[in-house]
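User: Show me a protein chain along with its predicted structure.
Assistant: Here is one chain, sequence first, then structure tokens.
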Amino acid sequence: MSFIRESFSEFWASNISKIGILFLTVLVIVSIYTVVTLPLDFGVRYWYNPLYWVDYPKTAQPEWINIFLSEKLMSHAELSVSKASGIKTYNNRFIKYYNVSYNHEYNQFPKFITLRISNLLFHNRDSPPIVRFYVTRPDGKTVELYTLAIETPSNNVIPPFKYFSIEPKRILLSGDMYLARSLIGFLYREFNISLGISSILEIGNERIIFGYISGKNTFAPLTGRYVFSTVLVCSDVNDNIGMVNVVLGGYVYGLMGTDVLGRDLSQGLLFGFPVALIIGIGTSLLTTVIGAGLGIISGYIGGRIDDFIQRFADTINNIPLLPLLILLSFIFGGKLWLIILVLVFFNWPSLTIIVRSMVLSAKTSQFIEAAVAIGASRLRVMVKHIFPQVAPFVFAQMIFFTPYAILAEAALSFLGLGDVTMPTWGQILEYGFKNGAVFLGYWWWILPPGLFIVYSAITFVFIALGMEPVVNPRLRRWK
């Protein structure tokens, strides 16, 4: 125990060790948070599912970038309402209003406008409801956005009838022909301007809705309060809409922005933390156990066992790793377990050779000979007497292996050969380069994953540097 205390005291005396432990603590805490908050199948269920991100803004910058801009960029907004704000009756029909307001204070138009409704419930088979969408602008003018007629349910369905419960009904207003025709009438009625559908679509539906006329066929952003109204016309007072969403595509989103598919990069980057730890620690732990174990056996037992282990280690050492890793990834796919196994298989020989040389000098020590003389078994000698002699070096090597494994996975993912069932920092980098993020200036897509790779690698480098005085007594501080 005194040896352990002295070793830890020597390790902790270095400032670089404390920085490494601090960095590692952050890595572990973020990894635990990610595992708790995100599902384990996040990659398959969400990250690689384009439909999940369809209403997210594409290539949006991080929200905090507005701190440094004199003219603020429009934030992505998703408005929702689940309860009717009013109800009227007209000709034996009930009219329910679902209103939600939005204060537009930016000098840009929304990238897109999407309407979604879910859990539409009605009871009368012969009189299905009609859903109409309107928006009232800051200038008091109202635009009809869309009219949704619900189909009559089949006779084998028992009331009440529930629509859009599994998949919400999504209406993309940008480029919608129904809205374009409605805007033709709106412009002529309110401003006495005649435009055709082609001109409306060329200008953009969202620009006309959120703009005022600033010139011939040109619109400038109209700031102020917009009220989006969803009107349910139904025949039963119990008919209702479970949820109405209005999505206004912005230019900034979240903590880390989005990629070209609209994926929230902060979630992908978060998921990269536990993946990096699993790859790094898993690979280094297995490599160290196998390499140190075979090195101790080879050095202490000797003979044919020693010859076999050393010749096998020399053979493995002379096989190029990267081409074989690329080939196996092509054949079997870039599975995480395959990457770990290949890295372990090709990295244990170097540790085995070094540990063997240390054991050859240690086994001639007098305390080893004394243990053998009193009848200690080979296993006991190797575990109780030899392993403690090489343990500091082995632990230091284990820490050094960790960043190597993380960088190897990142490099493989950057080549497009990573595990496609989960997002990693290397894959985020690879997809960014493939879509020209560097040339288009999407810095938020490239810099964070690169910095996180460096951060995780340098964490274990700092810890390994702090272990050097423990491994090498000549570097210890004399007290």
